[in-house]
Design a protein that fits this description.
47% of the residues lie in helices and 17% in strands. β7, α10 and β8 form a beta-alpha-beta unit. It has 14 helices and ten strands. α1 packs parallel to α3. The chain has a seven-stranded mixed sheet with strand order 6-2-1-7-8-10-9. A three-stranded antiparallel sheet has the order 3-5-4. It is α/β, with parallel strands linked by helices. It binds S-adenosylmethionine (SAM). S-adenosylmethionine binds next to loops.
């Protein structure tokens, strides 16, 4: 082996070690990414820390715990969009929000909100539903992310025309004020959303939630972390509350046994309502709510919405 080949070989070992370290320490499941993508993003941190090789960077990480957050920020993609996956928002608008807003106090959480498009889309739906009656309800949309730069943009609520490309003009006129090239979410919608920095790896303080959107976030996490976080969401929801995941995300393990599946395609799940045994299980000849989950082959061929009606 030439000295260059030896160098490449050792660097490759250090790269694998780095991936293991990130998995163990911050739960980032690097096997979800292509190596060329990881290398491109890691190159930024190698330059910023002046380490320039994976082996030196691994040593640096072990001595500088704060670097884990910085590298995590660089590796987690912030891509998002208003009304991303339109059918999901349509489902929320038609089936979930009208049910939730039978109550006058509704608490929702957009976990992993990136630059804010997701919680603002939800806030727009809430306003569309309640209109003038909005002030008579106590509505809170918590919106959290661990990326401070993304959160700063979210708090500002300013977007350019390209970021609003999927919105119809009347909706833009109603919910955004235009100033030159920028479009700002109007205050009556912005005020419903409360942004905060929060790491999903840490326990949540939110309780008695009616709806949690956690979409396209878990793809970064190991399966164990995902199950752990979904169980925390389960505990943070009130009975009958909803969880919405990303389209490429599925519940597995314990969470998949606890949640009911309200809509398979839109990835909408429900914590069993208090009366679920009486109302649903007897009708279906099912003994435990656990049996009503997405992984149960009995329901796979069935329109899952009918399960909950
Ligand atoms: C692809 S964006 C998803 C945005 C939005 N939920 C959507 O579906 O359009 C993923 C977001 O998850 C955030 N994220 C990744 N790991 C996180 C963690 N441990 N705690 C909180 N947010 C995290 C990233 O910073 C990023 O903004």
């Amino acid at each position: 082996m030439t000295s260059v080949e030896v160098g490449d070989f050792l660097e490759n070992i250090a790269f694998q070690k780095l991936k293991r370290l990130l998995h163990e320490r911050v739960g980032l499941n690097c096997s979800c990414y292509r190596d060329d993508y990881l290398k491109r993003r890691l190159a930024v941190r190698l330059r910023a820390t002046g380490t320039n090789t994976y082996s030196r960077y691994v040593r640096y990480l072990k001595k500088n715990a704060v670097e884990y957050n910085l590298v995590l920020n660089d590796l987690t993609i912030n891509y998002t969009a208003f009304f991303r996956d339109r059918d999901v928002y349509l489902y929320l608008e038609k089936n979930v929000l009208p049910t939730l807003f039978k109550s006058t106090e509704v608490r929702m959480w957009s976990a992993g909100c990136a630059t804010g498009e997701e919680p603002y889309s939800l806030a727009i739906l809430v306003h569309k539903l309640l209109g003038e009656k909005l002030p008579t309800h106590k509505v809170t949309i918590f919106a959290s992310d661990l990326d401070e730069d993304a959160l700063a943009k979210a708090v500002k609520g300013e977007y350019d025309r390209k970021q609003l490309r999927d919105l119809e003009d009347p909706l833009i006129d109603k919910y955004f004020s235009n100033n030159g090239a920028s479009y700002r979410v109007k205050d009556f919608v912005r005020h419903i959303v409360r942004f905060e920095k929060r790491d999903l790896m840490k326990p949540s303080l939110h309780k008695s939630l009616d709806l949690i959107l956690c979409r396209n976030v878990m793809i970064f996490f190991s399966r164990e972390s995902q199950q752990h976080i979904y169980m925390r969401f389960y505990n943070a929801l009130r009975e009958g509350g909803y969880l919405v995941t990303g389209k490429s995300e599925v519940l597995s393990g314990e969470p998949s046994k606890r949640f009911l599946c309200a809509d398979v395609n839109c990835r909408v799940y429900q914590k069993p309502p208090a009366d679920v045994n009486r109302r649903v299980l007897s009708g279906l000849g099912v003994e435990k709510a656990d049996e009503l989950n997405l992984n149960n082959p009995r329901w796979r061929t069935m329109d899952s919405c009918t399960i909950l009606k």
